[in-house]
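The authors assume throughout that readers already know how a fold can be written as discrete tokens. Each protein is reduced to its one-letter sequence and a matching series of backbone shape codes. I therefore recommend that a typical entry be quoted early in the introduction. For illustration, here is how one protein appears when written out as sequence plus structure tokens:
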Amino acid sequence: MPFLFIVQRMKIGDIDLGSQPLFLAPMEDVTDPSFRYMCKRMGADVVTTEFISSDGLIRDAWKSRAKLNIDEAERPVGIQIYGHLIEPMVEAARIAETAHPDFIDINFGCPVKKIAGRGAGSGMMRDVPLMVEMTRQIVEAVETPVTVKTRLGWDEDNKNILDIALRLQDVGIKALTIHGRTRSQMYRGEADWTLIGEVKHHPSIEIPIIGNGDVDSGPKAKQMFDTYGVDGVMIGRATYGRPWIFREVKHFMATGEVMPQPSVVERVAIAKEHLAKSLEIKGERVGILEMRRHLSNYFKGLPDFKSTRLTLVTSNDIDELYSTLDMIAQRWGDVDMSGAVPPSLSHEI
């Protein structure tokens, strides 16, 4: 049964995100600062950091602290934290607030065994009272708006997202993102948006609801907005090697036309800009290392690309990387990329 709704502007606290905003999903080892920058430049309305361990933050671990670094160009930007104990999570939220994000997001959705198995991420869905109390204490501890990202439930027999949504709303969260799978599904099968729509249109739900799962094109995003009436759509795995998906979605929603995929020459220009930003933010060694997971994925679908891809993911020389990108434009510049949509390799958290 279709929902009847009026499109309204979405807000997280006092932050006005406009109507039907697009969110970049937080993804471990993917949504580093340079990638967030590229997605933002190409149409993402809201971005979020990789998730950060509460234990790492309170121990002052350098890798966790480094993830707090955000840039003004990213705004509005959220910092996502995860953990299974209340006191460390509250302290982590206070530390995250010192980085001045626009919101703090709590990860109650990560299905990975090493996270969920110890009660963090989606593991928290097995102890809803603890989830709610943790959220309440975090909301009370910080002035920054608090949001939550979670799933439909632990498994097929426990899809309790409506109850969770109502209880989290009651303790003060400002928005809720729902991934349309249970924890037991991991990333298998199709995301079920039906329950997301039911949560959004429940008469007691007043906070914005953001839908997440399997959105990989403009038509798919428009379908989710039109069919389920969510306030925002979050895109995760489909952005990997494809930060331009946000402009694709916006173009389709504005015109009803599917935007052609970027040419090889345009992909090279995007990759160069991304590489330069990564070097600027992280320096030569780390900047190159973090780009390896991105560079070759810009060129998925090119024929006879194996040796060139190997150079992109192994070279430590900046000049070699740039010359390799120039060579890609020269050698493959005429290749039709209309069907070259990279596979979804990363995991939304």
